Amino acid sequence: MATNGAGILNVAIIGAGPAGYYTAEALTGGAREVHVDIIDRLPTPFGLIRAGVAPDHQSIKNVSRRYEATNKRENVRFVGNLSLGRDITLAELRELYDAVVLATGAGKDRPLGIDGEKLTGVIGSASFVGWYNAHPDYKDLKPDLRVASVAVIGNGNVALDVARVLAKTASEMANSDLADHAAGTIHGAPIRDIHILGRRGPLDASFTPKELGELNQLENCVTLVDRAQLPDESLDASLSGAAKKNMATLRAIATNKPDAKPVRLHLQFYRRPMAILGDSCVCGIRLEETRVENGTCVGTGVTEVLPAGLVVPCIGYRTSPIPDVPYSERYGCFENDGGRISNGLYCVGWAKRGPTGTIGTNKPDGAEVAEKILQEVSPSGKTGRDGLDHIIRERDLHIVTFQNWKKIEANEEASAHSGAPRKKLVDVSEMVRIAES
Ligand code: NAP
Known about the structure:
- The strands form 5 sheets. The protein has a 6-stranded mixed β-sheet, sandwiched between helices. Strands 8-9-7-6-13 form a 5-stranded parallel β-sheet.
- By secondary structure, the protein is α/β, with parallel strands linked by helices.
- Helix 7 (157-167) runs parallel beside helix 9 (209-215) and helix 14 crosses helix 15.
- The two termini are 29 Å apart.
- The protein contains 15 helices and 18 strands.
- The structure holds NADP nicotinamide-adenine-dinucleotide phosphate (NAP).
- NADP nicotinamide-adenine-dinucleotide phosphate (NAP) binds at residues 112, 153-159, 161, 198-200, 204, 206, 211, 272-273, 314-316, 355-358.
C-alpha cells in the first residue's frame, strides 16, 4: 500500500449528515493539510437533512448547499454506499486514518418502556419519519393508516412534524418531497382525530413557536386545546422568548371550534402513557392524568382510555452502538469527553451529545471536535484515502462518489411532480445503478 506524505492528517468521518459536514468544514478550513473522507452507508449524502427534516420544510434543507461547498474542497471526499461493519470494520479504518470521527447520528427510537409497545400499529418516530421521508431502511414499512384516530406521544418538534404531515392535504404537500408511497397512504387515510400527548404542561413543551404556529394554519384540520389546561392568563406577562410566543399561539388555538374543519388535532397536556392496548393490533392507549411538581410529571392516579389505531411515540432517539466503542446507556450516545472517545477516535453531533438541538447546533459542535483533533492528533504517515481505495478495489465495493451522487440528484429532480423539488428514490440498488450509469 502507498503511504501518504507524513505531513498530511488523514481523517475519516463516518456519517454524511450535518455533524459530519460541519466537522469536515472546520477540519479543512485552516492552514493544516488535512484530508477528510466522509463515509456513509447510504449512496446519498446529508443525513437528517434528507431523511429527518420534514418534507414540507424545504427551506431548512437549503443548508445542504453549504455542505456541497465543503465537498467541493479538493481535500474533502464523499464515499457513499460504504457501510461500517458490512464493508469495512472500525479497526480497519483506524489503521488507515490518523483520526476516525463517528458522526452516525441517533437513528433508533428510545423505548417507552410500557406494555403494548410491540403491538402492530405502534411505530416509533425514527421509522415513521424515515418512511415518509423515503429513507431506504423504511421503504417497506407499510403502516396501516386506515384508522380514525392517531396518538402521537411527545411534545417536541418531531411530534409536531409527524402530526402536521398526517394532517396536511395533498395540495398542502405539493411543494414537498414527501415519499410517493407515503403520499398515497396518508392522503387516502380516513384519519379524523390526531392527538398530540404531552406528559407535562404547555410551558414544559420543547416544541418551538414557528412549528406550533404552523398547526394553526392547516387547510383541512383544526387544532384544539382545552383552555383549562393553559396556565392562568395573569402569568403571560412574566413569560419571555419561546414560552411567550407558544402561549400566545395556544391561547389563539383555544378559541378554535371543533367543527370548523373535517379533521381535528388535539393538543393534550398532562397525560402520560401507561399502556398501549390491543390484542395483536393497537386499539387504544391508557393515559394517566399528571400534574407537574418541580418540573417533574407526577401521576394523579386518574386514568382514561384514548381510542387510537396508530400510535407514534416521538420521545427521542438513541445512537446505534458500535462493537468495542464505549456507549452510555443513560444518554443513548457514545461515552466521550468533549467528543474524544479514545486515542484517534472521536464522535460528534447526536452521537456525541444525544438527540438534542437543531441542525445549526452541529456547527459549533463540529468546530469544537475538529479543534480537538487538530490539537491532539499528528500526521503519522498512515495511508488514508489511498489505503481505503485499495480496500474498495480489493473487495469490489460499489461506492458512490459525490460526482455520482449528483447523477442520483439529477434523476430525482427530473422526475419530480410539478411544484415538488424532487421525487426521492428509495431503493439503494437503483440509486447505485443510476450513480454508475
Ligand atoms: P425532544 O424535543 O426532546 O422531545 C421529546 C418529547 O418526548 C418531550 O416532550 C418529552 O417529554 C417526551 N417524552 C420523553 N420520554 C417520554 C415518555 N416516556 N413518555 C411520554 N413522553 C416522553 O425530542 P424530539 O422531538 O425527538 O426532537 C429531537 C431534536 O430535534 C430536538 O432538539 C428538536 O428541537 C430537533 N428538531 C427540530 C426540528 C425543527 O427545528 N423544525 C424538527 C424536528 C426535530 P419531557 O419534556 O417531559 O421529557
